Amino acid sequence: QVQLAESGGGLVQPGGSLRLSCAASGFTFSSPVMFWYRQAPGKERELVARISQGGSMRRYADSVKGRFNISRDNVKNMVYLQMNSLKPEDTAVYYCQGSDAWGQGTLVTVSS
Q1: Which residues lie below 8 Å from residue 66, measured CB to CB, with a gap of 6+?
Q2: Within 10 A of 87 (CB to CB), how many other CB atoms are there?
Q3: Which residues lie closer than 8 Å to 44 by C-beta, 6 or more apart?
Q4: Residues 16, 20, 21, CA angle at the centre, nearest 5°?
Q5: E strands present in the chain
Q6: What span, in angstroms and rounded, lies between the C-alpha atoms of 73 and 54?
Q7: Res 26: pLDDT
Q8: Are 106 and 97 in contact (CB under 8 A)?
């Protein structure tokens, strides 16, 4: 059974940083491209970042480019999202996605 579980969300002040983690199980983790999405209140879910199987290719939404960094550890079956210089508009539930599975999401709130 494919499972993804996010962690690391919380409340942070504008300009702060958080690192989200996603633990994967139930599939060959090194195979699929992995994604981070987010959904802000009242808005549609949007793609934030993606990373290739080996980790060499990474793509970001324009809104987070230069501030966020996606990475993965295929030995530990983990994918990460390092978020720096956070803004109030980054407030959302963040989801990990891969191999046709979704995690339950972790809430990030950026507020003073």
Answers
A1: none
A2: 14
A3: none
A4: 155
A5: 3-7, 10-12, 18-25, 34-39, 46-51, 58-60, 68-73, 78-83, 92-98, 101-102, 106-110
A6: 9
A7: 83
A8: no
Tokens of 61: 């939404």
Distance between CA 32 and CA 79 in Å, rounded?
Answer: 12
Give the model confidence (pLDDT) of 62-112 as tens digits: 999 999 999 999 999 999 999 999 999 999 999 999 988 999 999 999 999
DSSP state at residue 1: -
Neighbours of 65 (CB within 10 A): 10
d(C-alpha 111, C-alpha 90), whole Å: 10
Q: Nearest-CA neighbor of 8 among 109, 112, 111?
A: 109
* CB 10, CB 111: distance < 8 Å: no
Identity of the amino acid at 68: F
